[in-house]
Amino acid sequence: MLLVKRFDPLCVTALMLVALTCIVTATDAQNTDFDSDSIYYTPLSRTPPATVERSVSVFRDTAKVGQFTRYYFDVGMAMLAGCSCGTGPEFTSSTSTIHGVTLGRKLRVGAGVGFDTYVGWLAAPMFGSVGYDLVGTRNTHALFVQGQYGFSFAWFQGYTNALLPDEQHGGPMFAALAGYRLRYHNLRIAISAGFKQQKAITVYETETWMPSETGGMVPGTPSHTTIETTMGRGVLNLAFSWK
Question: Does domain 69-242 correspond to CATH entry 2.40.160.20?
Fold first, then answer.
């Protein structure tokens, strides 16, 4: 005879609730372990590096130490402004080119030639040039001073009714400038102002006459009159240079 054991429905329900409670508890424990494992599962936040803003001066030379000497050349165009007695203000032009070397970071030494125009004169100076950067260097923008000294060949260009000289000579030329130089890669653009002085000489010969023993007139020793002209002008110069 087969015996069938009968279970109480309340006992079965209680057992099912206990089993469900155990399953939920085990699942929560597993999730807690998963969340607490920060090495494998928790993303690490990265703090971006702090950025420091620095204002770099246009006069600051950040270039590494290079050659002590470096070749350069420039081409300049200038306006000469001045006045002569009786003619009023005069505005003429000047052009020049200088070739030389930079010594270190601040000193420039070179030789140049130019062509200057004045009212009544033309001059072709040959000169030496020395420049020094007061602020900045050859690798940056710079405030500079420059001096030029040399000798000019000169030609007198008188008015139509003017008495032409028998001789004409050039003389010493001097210029002093101060300005600002801009740098763009190997190109330099300089704007400067200053003073320029040029001297020139004209010689006029005048015939003289002397009485002769016969009562007539004979040529005597010619008389020479030498006039030295000094032309001082204000200068406004624009120059383009390479290195």
Answer: yes
pTM of the model: 0.68
Enclosing H/E stretch for 29: helix 9-36
Please tell me the distance from the alpha carbon of residue 73 to that of residue 231, in angstroms, as a whole number: 27
The DSSP code sequence of 98-109 is EEEEEETTTEEE
Instruction: List CB contacts of 112: < 8 A, sequence separation 6 or more.
Output: 96, 97, 98, 99, 126, 127, 128, 129, 148
- Asked if residue 118 lies in contact with residue 87, where contact means CB atoms within 8 angstroms, the answer is no
How far is it, in rounded angstroms, from Cα 215 to Cα 78?
61
243 burial (CB, 10 Å; 0-12 / 13-18 / 19+) is middle
Residue 118 near residue 143, CB atoms below 8 Å? no
Per-residue pLDDT reduced to its tens digit, 225-240 = 888 999 999 999 999 9
